[in-house]
Amino acid sequence: MSKEITARSEDYSKWYNDLVLKGGLADYSAVRGCMVIKPYGFALWEAMRDVLDRKFKETGHQNAYFPLFIPKSFLSKEADHIEGFAKECAVVTHYRLKNDPNGGGVVVDPEAKLEEELIVRPTSETIIWNTYKDWIQSYRDLPLLINQWANVVRWEMRTRLFLRTAEFLWQEGHTAHATADEAIAETRQMLEVYADFAENYMAVPVVKGVKSPSERFAGAVDTYCIEALMQDGKALQAGTSHFLGQNFAKAFDVQFSNKENKLDYVWATSWGVSTRLIGGLIMVHSDDQGLVLPPKIAPIQVVIVPIYKGADQKAGLDEKVMEIVKTLRSAGISVKYDDNDNNRPGWKFAEYEMKGVPVRIAVGARDLENQVVEVARRDTKEKMTLPLEGLAGNIQNLLDQIQQNLYDKAKQYRDSHITRVDTWEEFEKVLDEKGGFVSAHWDGTAETEEQIKDRTKATIRCIPLNNPQEEGKCILTGKPSKERVLFARAY
Amino acid sequence: MSKEITARSEDYSKWYNDLVLKGGLADYSAVRGCMVIKPYGFALWEAMRDVLDRKFKETGHQNAYFPLFIPKSFLSKEADHIEGFAKECAVVTHYRLKNDPNGGGVVVDPEAKLEEELIVRPTSETIIWNTYKDWIQSYRDLPLLINQWANVVRWEMRTRLFLRTAEFLWQEGHTAHATADEAIAETRQMLEVYADFAENYMAVPVVKGVKSPSERFAGAVDTYCIEALMQDGKALQAGTSHFLGQNFAKAFDVQFSNKENKLDYVWATSWGVSTRLIGGLIMVHSDDQGLVLPPKIAPIQVVIVPIYKGADQKAGLDEKVMEIVKTLRSAGISVKYDDNDNNRPGWKFAEYEMKGVPVRIAVGARDLENQVVEVARRDTKEKMTLPLEGLAGNIQNLLDQIQQNLYDKAKQYRDSHITRVDTWEEFEKVLDEKGGFVSAHWDGTAETEEQIKDRTKATIRCIPLNNPQEEGKCILTGKPSKERVLFARAY
């Protein structure tokens, strides 16, 4: 496969696909809308998952696992929920194949029809709350703080690698509480966990906010979200945390006896992030030479490429490089020594640039004589000569600098792409010419929101938390408004 | 729920279910044959998964993720494979629900019928080898060493928690090699990894062997396995590693150019263990008081229960116990301090006995005055007084002793339940009265194997590796045989 990447300026969408495919993150599969996550992409997901999982456990959550299948009738129990999820689901109707008696190969056995169809989970609120009914009797059983790492399926018509796939991997937290206040505090806490992860590990600055009613999760009272900005000026929802009120408890009759020994319905939250985050990560940091990955979640932080002529010179290098590898690994740095003899150094340089490895070290015999190595950073492409003495400390500093630089750069771009507008003319002009978030007044109605979407493809990404209250007029209808909201075109 | 457990001697099967349900490992779900893995059970699976995952990575494997769905036609491409898996699969036929125009709630939308049905993966050889076709061109692309952690579905008619469920969690390794020898070496290596894990982490002794042709994986040339023995004398297959020859490469046309630049089909292996292992773990070690978990994979290694009267005394204890907790954790021991005021110490003792926590420490004010704690081990129920001084080291020694004791005890039971028999009469008698493995001669034919199964429910569990060659006569037919094989009734 050619390693040439389409330039962002030429075709942004093709650039993105090139990065995913040629960077070795994922591949198309034979199943419509489903992708294969390749080892390098999966290692990235594992790194992200490990950080999040630790944070979930630190905040008192435990992992569990619930069934892949949901009885069809469960989906209907919460009225909004069925509206949101019935339209895009994989339906299991039979449980056996058989040889076609007419010689047509293997066919579905009509005698093996399920009494009730099963839906491949698009999200697990229903099956989980049906289970919680058996687990919760008293306030002593609360709070119940559970997370699940799982695959889910939503039958999307138009799919994009990582960003929108029929099957995707995610985590879904589902918690149960004795009071509304506790559940809201949990919802907000998990939003903070996601924001901290996005900003301090993915180096992706996010706006924290709450969704407008039209954009809420199907069945939620409030949906909180973090919104990130891509390099093409489009927004991406990077995580959501829902306050579900008592909706699912009522749908599945989950009541508990409170401290006053009175029965009440349980309060719920759910929250999730998915492999979609990888799509966002790619689009925030990468450039026309390939992926750029933040050191804190990069599967390989440092690659070492030996420069040599002939097997003898290589043998001499190997021994010394293995010492460097050992030193770096002892310092907690993940290192790959690429001593594959089939590829030349130039090919390797291009390969690891494509793969977004934060730091590249090139080592030749003369460098080692001089007790130095040649170091290149992926983000700025800056090169430097560093002494072997104290290398691990210097590389760790460099990794920290790269992490910070990626965040600063993304934040600068994001901050310079939040534009306040007060007229419809400006609104359309900014969306078309500049992109990014547009901060504007809105009259608060779903009708206006929909009209704006129809006319511009922009949606309300969120109403930021701690939004300053300010008198103004809706950009479309001129009706009075008390605060600005953030619009954007989005993935 | 009553914490009373049915005795093994009374009803072994009910004893097992009591342990799973009352020990908090898993629960039944609303979906036929699917279970919910509860937090304590999932923590156990995580501990097992982490060890295995590390071992896979140490032997050069990488994780990846392939689609949940398999196009129906893929299953048919390998002739034996379709025979083995078509009879028990979940079939997705539609991709949308809609509101019933006749008011019957939500129904499958007949217009959203898939052109080709999708099978929820029962195992992933087909979808993976269809993908490998694009990844492998040259010997330089080999070996390809990939593992996947995933959920799979097999529509079993009779299910048991952990032991046989419609959906279960597992890992499946799928590797591709340039030569048969390399693939066979990989198959054997992974069998060793499984055996090492079973014996040194699960404390479960296993027999390593190869399956008879009738018991092979559908599509394999050879199936290697590890077989464990439960306390009721029945065997359980604890892991399998398959040498697939070129069967899947031929079915999916995966060829590579070898070093001589000639095209050849790729050689394959696959290998897997599942949540079924948890069922085996329970049945090998547990007793009539509850679960007994080996320290190396126990989610909680040590529980500390405070003994006090009133809040003042408790406050005094808390501070000192937190020091003990800190000391133990620094030594890498996982500790839970159960200071829940709602339950009395006696209740807690029974609870953690039920949950199989290897070591329980009870701490009262007088103990602390005397600079000691009361320690009880779960396996032997032995109690001892240990000084605070040097506690972490003593507890670690105790955990090591418990691990060793569990293995020794299980091995003694297993070894005393391998019985050599030479006549049909003895064969039936041992199976009925003693159980365990029966080492007997067999004429090597599938017909005899099936007759023996029909008459006794015993199957050939394996032909042990390095089996001594010995002249003998088949216990059923009297025909000549060159080696003994291991029969048993099995889960």
TrEMBL record, chains A, B:
Residues 30-294 form the Aminoacyl-transfer RNA synthetases class-II family profile domain. It comes from the Bacteria. It comes from Chitinophaga terrae (ex Kim and Jung 2007). GO terms for molecular function: ATP binding; proline-tRNA ligase activity. Belongs to the class-II aminoacyl-tRNA synthetase family. ProS type 3 subfamily. It catalyses: tRNA(Pro) + L-proline + ATP = L-prolyl-tRNA(Pro) + AMP + diphosphate. GO terms for biological process: prolyl-tRNA aminoacylation. Catalyzes the attachment of proline to tRNA(Pro) in a two-step reaction: proline is first activated by ATP to form Pro-AMP and then transferred to the acceptor end of tRNA(Pro). Its main location: cytoplasm. PROSITE patterns: AA_TRNA_LIGASE_II. The keyword ATP-binding applies. The keyword Protein biosynthesis applies. Signal peptide: none annotated. One of its GO terms (cellular component) is cytoplasm. Pfam families: HGTP_anticodon, ProRS-C_1, tRNA-synt_2b. HAMAP family: Pro_tRNA_synth_type3. Consists of three domains: the N-terminal catalytic domain, the anticodon-binding domain and the C-terminal extension. InterPro entries: aa-tRNA-synt_IIb (IPR002314), aa-tRNA-synth_II (IPR006195), aa-tRNA-synth_II/BPL/LPL (IPR045864), Anticodon-bd (IPR004154), Anticodon-bd_dom_sf (IPR036621), Pro-tRNA-ligase_IIa_arc-type (IPR004499), Pro-tRNA_ligase_II_C (IPR016061), Pro-tRNA_synth_II (IPR017449). This is Proline--tRNA ligase.
